[in-house]
Structures are given as C-alpha cells and as structure tokens.
Amino acid sequence: MSLRRALALAACGLAGGSVLFSAVGVGKQPAHGAGGDAETRSAGAAPGLLLLPPPGSCPAAPGWVERPAGGGGYWDSNWDRREPLALINRKKKNEETGEEELASRLDHCKAKATRHIFLIRHSQYNVDGRIDKDRILTQLGREQAELTGRRLASLGLKFDTIIHSSMTRATETTDIISKHLPGVKKISTDLLREGAPIEPVPPVSHWKPEAVQYYEDGARIEAAFRNYIHRADAKQEEDSYEIFVCHANVIRYIVCRALQFPPEGWLRMSLNNGSITHLVIRPSGRVALRTLGDTGFMPPDKITRT
Question: What pTM value is reported for the model?
Fold first, then answer.
C-alpha cells in the first residue's frame, strides 16, 4: 500500500467518517503508471498535496461502535462510561455545601486502582475438526500452553481470575495454564467465543463471512469489550491482574477498541498461538498497550499462528 493510500485510509478511521483537513503534504507525487495507485487529484490542487476522501466516502461502522466527534488526536476520556463527572447528577447538590459536596462526590466515584489485562490467544488446535468439540489442542498446542503458563507464573503477579472462552481450544488452553497458577479462579463465558467482529478494512480475499455473521458476532464481541474492558471500580483498592483466554479476532478487536483506534483495522495485526497481549487501564481511564502477541518466551520451533 502506498503512503498516500495509507494516509487516506487513516483519515477515514481516525476521523470516524469525517475529514478534518483537506490535504496533507507528502512530498513529490510519483507519476501514474503500471502497478501504481491512481489517486484522484482536484483541478488546481497544489503539487505535493494529497487530497483526502470527502465525508461519507469511508465505510460506515455498525451502530454499536461509537465514534467520537473529533479528529485523529482526540481521546474520549469517558470511553467506558466511568468518568466521575458522568456518574453523578450535577443538578442534585446541597445548597449549603455547593461545590465542596460536588468535589466529595467526585472523589467517591474516582477509580483508585490500575487494571492489568492479559489477553491470551489459545494454543494450536486441530483445524480439521468439523464441530467445536473436535477442535482440540494438538500435541504442540499443549506444549505451547505449558510454556504460556510458565511464563505467566514467572511474572510473580497475583492474578485474580482467568476468564476464558467456552470454545474447546480456549478451555483446554486455560486448563493447562491454570496448573501453573494454582488457586486462581476460572470462569467460562460465551461472550469471548471466536467470531467476525467487524468488516475489516482493507478486505481480504481468503476470508469473507456472510454479512449476518458480522451482525451476530460483532454485537457479542462488542458486548465482551464493554463488559470486561474498563477502568477499575471505585471500590477496588488494589491493582488487579486478570487473564482472558480467547481468540485472535476477539483480542485484535479489543486492542483496537481499547486504544480508540479504528476497529476496522483489527485484521492488520497477527497473533501467534499462546501469545500474551498486555493492556493496562489506569484509574484516569488512560489505556496503554505493553505487549502485543508476545511469544518471545517460546523456542522458535514452537511458534505457530494457526
């Protein structure tokens, strides 16, 4: 993809369907030729300027994906609907104490702890299985899960819980990992099952689900994001460390949503089996990605992406 094309696509996603500027300087424009992208140029446009697509030309996102009304550098501080000012009724205040009471109520709603979210992709499995119960881990997949479990245990963190997809390959991966983390509670959920979260941009030729699959899976995976990915509750006093064992599509979509990147870009990332992705959610609501698809703890001959 050319730089001009990449910038144009970025403008679509980052502006959430609206364009904040009409042109970006990209240096000298190459001449159109065989194999090159033919970009649309407006009459009288200055050389070296890339014209971005007009409003409405970017793919429309499903209704459940919220788009901030801002530009590429915009950050929605209330993305998880847990910003203190959004949790209180500002019209309801004591006439005598006024702003003092408001400050007290705001403090009561503020998160105090940091959440560490570890997103684990399941290990290699039998891709030829016709139904879910036949898609069990391969011998290599079991070895990968052992390595992931050892890696998590070596971090020396006090993990609070392991929440995993109810699909066979995720459940088996969880069972192996949990042997290295004795006493950590396991919870199964259908929300984290694999699926088609949102139509990817750019599209790929080898994977084209029916539109109804995006409609069904996308809403469920978005529900998983809203249910599990948010700042800590105000009652939480200490930092938490939580493990989620699920699937590549789910993890990639969650990462895009948590970082407020265009969710349609989820398929531009690739995750190895048994990999570790580490998200940090601060009390302020700020989100940081510490690792994405880490498998540096595995020998090269154990790494796969099936």
Answer: 0.76
